[in-house]
Amino acid sequence: MARRQQEKAPSPAKTKPLQIDLSSVRYEGCRAIPHPQDTQNGNKEKDSETVLENGCLSIVVLGASGDLAKKKTFPALFNLYRQGFLQPSEVYIFGYARTKLSDDGLRDRLRGHLIQGKETSSNHSEAVSKFLQLVKYVSGSYDNEEGFQLLDKEISEHEISKNSREGSSRRLFYLALPPSVYPSVSKMIRNCCMNRSDLGGWTRIVVEKPFGKDLSSAEELSAQLGDLFSEEQIYRIDHYLGKELVQNLLVLRFANRFFLPLWNRDNIDNIQIVFREDFGTEGRGGYFDEYGIIRDIIQNHLLQVLCLVAMEKPGSLKPERIRDEKVKVLQSVLPIADEDVVLGQYEGYTADPTVSDHSNTPTFATVILRIHNERWEGVPFILKAGKALNSRKAEIRVQFKDVPGDIFKCKKQGRNEFVIQLQPPEAMYMKLTVKQPGLEMATIQSELDLSYRQRYQGVSIPEAYERLILDTIRGDQQHFVRRDELKAAWEIFTPLLHRIDDGELKPLPYKPGSRGPVEADDLLARAGYVQTHGYMWVPPTL
Fold it and tell me: If you average pLDDT over residues 271-276, what whole number do you get?
């Protein structure tokens, strides 16, 4: 087993509610950071020892010629550069892939993704050009040392040019790659590209989902990475944890007094966490058919949101305190019962030439999770995700219980709900019953609304990848998945996934553009969800 390099990770910045615009903040290249203490399960606590983080920063994007790097990683780095978080005097960005390209060849490939959908002013074009001059390309294989030795040579030359002391430089490796090559690439990084010593510098790796296909494959991958790097060096990224309103959940729950007594089984009847897309696999059929909607969306994105909705208040905002509480939630989830699952597959899915004619892969799933603890006993958590449906949305819907003693006879109009729209248009609103204006004592459903585009006009909401890459540079692991958290998540879903893989559970057909299988609505009704008829939330106009 390779000797692990001790990591120096900065303490997380104190969280501020509704801190949205990053443009007013500047990256500090020199700051005091605490020294982490390893524990057996990867947790860390802070002590009084500090080191100075002042070396130059090298960001290496592995898989630089792929779609993820071009569409997400490099645009996020560019936006951080524009806002001053990546200073040209300190940072250099290296792309690494098997494709034979020159520096200018990679820059030309990236340019269109940095200006697409954005202003085309001369200032913007100039910023793009200056950013691309910080990008260098290295070509090499993912499983032999020659390419990585060349990469290390290029990184070292950059560090020398910035007069960085040996061991003080910072190296961030972003694996925008298929998980199948994580072990070989990580081994090459460990053998060839690590920071030389421990004088305030660090080496960190970012890995993308999927983190395995089930419990055993996830544990195998975790063991392979764990043999090479400490837990403090590994950042398992789930971009949902970088969304503005997902990051707002802890503030909403624990900084507002009126939520505290309501957020429990005495007042809440059910909670839905929903992801819907109005298009199919769109050319990703071969990849998607290997994983399906549960592995692709529910086991990671929606389950992470569930943790933040259901967790207890942490003792502090230290990343490990928050992640400890998330693990406790996952460990309290009961095994999934077959009667709490509805699977679907949209008609025409198997027409994709990359998908088997007899595919059993679900493109839709509704799964009810039940948490066995004092706060949530008896409250169903309904996780629902699907493709080729009648709308596009990602939301959390907290439905409260009926008001006892309904003197206004308004029960049939619907229940109180607190709804959080997670992706554009970002919003949160409380659905409640009010008196209808007029002379009669009649009731109507209305809402208290916070729509971000209206309330925060002119404020740019950062992309999730921007936040998470910046957190990685800062050493803040709050919004990343810890190893024991990953294991607990797979323990919940692996038995269900194996029954699907073995053909024991079959997806039901549904028409593209529909709500999904009608059986899913029946399951929601059995779980206690009451649909509101005659009311629709309409985002306010500016």
Answer: 97
